[in-house]
Amino acid sequence: MKRWSNALAAVLLSLTGSGLAQAADPIKIGSFLTVTGPASFLGDPELKTLQMYVDDLNAQGGIKGSKIELIHYDTGGNAKDAVNFVKRLIKNDKVDLLIGGTTTGDTMAVIPDVEKEGIPFISLAGAVEIVEPVKKWVFKTPHSDRMAAAKIFEDLRKRGLSEIALITGDGGFDKSGRAQILKLAPDYGMTLVADEFYGNKDTDMTTQLTKIRSSGAQAIINFGLGQAPAIVTKNIKQLGIALPLYQSHGVASKTFIDLAGDAAEGVRLPAAALVVAEQLPDADPQKPILLAYKNQYEAKHGPVSTFGGHAYDGLLIAVEAIKRAGAADKAKLRDEIESTKGFIGTAGVFNMTPQDHMGLNLDAFKLVEIRKGAWKIVE
């Protein structure tokens, strides 16, 4: 434990040791997250992570004497509220940058204001459309839905399965994920034999799954987040459907396993290495970072999730960019975020460019399977 704590301390100390001039004014980070509502299991660990590391950095003197002030608003997953909060953060709170947007819907809704006002924004949401096409002021830390689709298809191809049933919800993440599944399927030799939908507030999906059962599918992909994927998983078991089930990275938290119960056994999904940190080889450069974050978070808040990890990555990428910029100047900060290279985070090693505002490749994803209520790497 001490080894990993020391590793994290070294990371944080390096972030505070820049040539940034002494400044009495705090560096203001604006955050808008879904801490309540159906997607609270995503936003809650994100906020706890931001608060935890802002406190750590400030306890060490901030960034060369400038303390960090975190200003947060809870959107509850309401895109209209997200827009209003971002306007408030920019115009009233005068923040230097934004970290947030738990959901794709919240993130996409605020992008016009972010681009208009010219403020660096690191999103914590998954859809590839957030950064493709590239927006000047917008970045993201989670793996994209396109990467998730590719990782799932790679595994299906290895298993010799090509007849696929897809079921998705009505949220922004779900719709974007479905679009990527449809787009990439031909490249991997996949044929969709069923394409079913549900509302993310629905409590039973047996009608759609009954259609899937008679479709001739060899496997099922459910692309979604929130509680709905757990309901789909339980309904599949209740109907006695024995097909392999794949979920998206939108359910990569212990909350999904708890909600789905024993129905989650055997479910596969792409996820950040954080959920299987202990299973990585000791030579993996991510391992000390992952275990340091995991141990510190779990000591304070309980089981870690990849979603809190996205906030860790966003915050520390921003802090390193501020250090390199020498000030919280928005234009310089934007340029430095875009030039992030070799940053080892919980999602992988980030290498951003003017053409890539995420900076992760497919190797950053691990394919995992739920076995006896725990995540296991699929070899």
Features:
four-stranded parallel beta sheet, single chain, 42% helix, disordered N terminus, 379 residues, Rossmann fold, alpha/beta, 2 domains, globular, 12 helices
Write a structural description.
The chain is α/β, with parallel strands linked by helices and 379 residues long. It has helices at residues 2-16, 40-59, 79-91, 104-117, 145-158, 172-184, 206-213, 228-238, 254-260, 286-301, 306-325, 330-338; strands at 27-33, 68-74, 97-100, 121-123, 138-140, 163-168, 191-197, 219-223, 245-247, 268-272, 343-344, 349-350, 365-371, 374-377. Strands 2-1-3-4-5 form a five-stranded parallel beta sheet, sandwiched between helices. The model is unreliable at 1-5 and 17-23 (pLDDT under 50).
Task: List the SSEs and their pairings.
Layout: H1 2-16, E1 27-33, H2 40-59, E2 68-74, H3 79-91, E3 97-100, H4 104-117, E4 121-123, E5 138-140, H5 145-158, E6 163-168, H6 172-184, E7 191-197, H7 206-213, E8 219-223, H8 228-238, E9 245-247, H9 254-260, E10 268-272, H10 286-301, H11 306-325, H12 330-338, E11 343-344, E12 349-350, E13 365-371, E14 374-377
Parallel strand pairs: 1-2, 1-3, 3-4, 4-5, 6-7, 6-8, 8-9
Antiparallel strand pairs: 10-13, 11-12, 13-14
Helix pairs in contact: 1-10, 2-11, 3-4, 5-6, 8-9, 11-12
